[in-house]
Amino acid sequence: EQIEKGGYKHFMLKEIMDQPNAMRNALRGRIYQPADVPDKWEIKLGGLEKAKEGLSADGISPLERMANASRLIFAACGTSWHSSLIAKYAFEKLAGVAAEVEYASEFRYRKPLICRSDCLIAISQSGETADTLEAIKMAKQHQALTIGVVNVVGSSIARETDAGMYLHAGPEIGVASTKAFTCQVVALLLMALRLGKQRGVLSETTLNSYCAALNSVPDSIEKWLAALTDQTRIVSKYFRLATNAIFSGMGIHFPVALEGALKLKEISYIHAEGFPASEIRHGGITLIRNFVPVICVAMRSDPAYEDMKQMVQDFRAKDAAVVVLTDDGNTDFSNIAHFTLHCPDTKLELQPLMCCIPLQLLSYYIADMRGCSIDQPRNLAKSVTVE
Ligand code: G6P
């Protein structure tokens, strides 16, 4: 087991550190520059190009059906539900398509109105989550197209869906998902960009600039990891005895806040909640007082950045212990936050890939300092195959 951990104390830490490589694997062969044309990028998603046998008699590819879908329905559980929320923002903006996100467990027990023209996208690391599998079966009963975004090759969800993409993240052993999450976001961004092209929403120039930015994310994270590890360890020392923590972000960074809170809950057993920043004014604000850690994602490209800045000032005025994740070189929080962590710059829709890394590390080091069973937290299963 020590050999499998590659010298790290826990699988979770190994998997966090493995993310640049895992993301490269998720991108490999799918995003590339044709040799003879500088600055031009292509995205090729083999799993969406050819219909599985029996899917479509008229030769329409899953990609074409997706491009003509009246809406996308993302169905998932846990961390995979958070990557679905990020995907919703990306698909709406980059592919101009209506998208909804469902907890698979809620979806399957309702009577949702599903049409033939809908496309259900099931997101799952294991490919075995029972509720997600049932959501797929329901969508199929209504003859909607079903797409799987799955890590485990040959898993039930991979087999049950009409078409899909594998993450190629490699085996994830730690119960709390890290590299599968970032690879899900990578795969979904690729899909959103490809669909944006198919639907004529993205100009060639915009598509090229997104592709170049996405392709450089793994390198940016790799260069950043060593310094980030030192910084998050320092912050973790201050928070290791906390009993509650608040995570806050706006827009595409709200799901990042939710995922940050989930990671902390899962492995450190500290109660944590994620809020859309402004929504916190409608209740959550009562929890903010002396020494409560409040972790805010506030990127300058966020449409409501100025609001977020104001919120951070409010949190500080209430004597919370404030950590801000913001852009490289941004000094707006130097006199407000107790700690500021700077993320490498990228485009807004790709920023969650960067912002989630400090939150994973923060949870990891806090849990380690509390002596928790990090790779196998109490009561949690890697995949929930029971109903
Ligand atoms: C369990 C795991 C989570 C995971 C969720 C969904 O709750 O502990 O880490 O996010 O299941 O699993 P899936 O394999 O469908 O992504």
Automatic annotation (TrEMBL):
Subcellular location: Cytoplasm
Transmembrane segments: none
Record's GO cellular component terms: cytoplasm
Transferase among keywords: yes
Catalytic activity: D-fructose 6-phosphate + L-glutamine = D-glucosamine 6-phosphate + L-glutamate
Enzyme class, broadest EC rank: transferase
Single GO MF descriptor: carbohydrate derivative binding
Residues of the full protein shown: 259 to 645 of 645
Main location, first listed in the record: cytoplasm
Organism this protein belongs to: Symbiodinium pilosum
Domain SIS, residue spans: 62-201, 235-377
GO biological process: fructose 6-phosphate metabolic process; protein N-linked glycosylation; UDP-N-acetylglucosamine metabolic process
Keywords in alphabetical order: Aminotransferase, Cytoplasm, Glutamine amidotransferase, Repeat, Transferase
Enzyme Commission number(s) from the entry: 2.6.1.16
Name of the protein in its database record: Glutamine--fructose-6-phosphate aminotransferase [isomerizing]
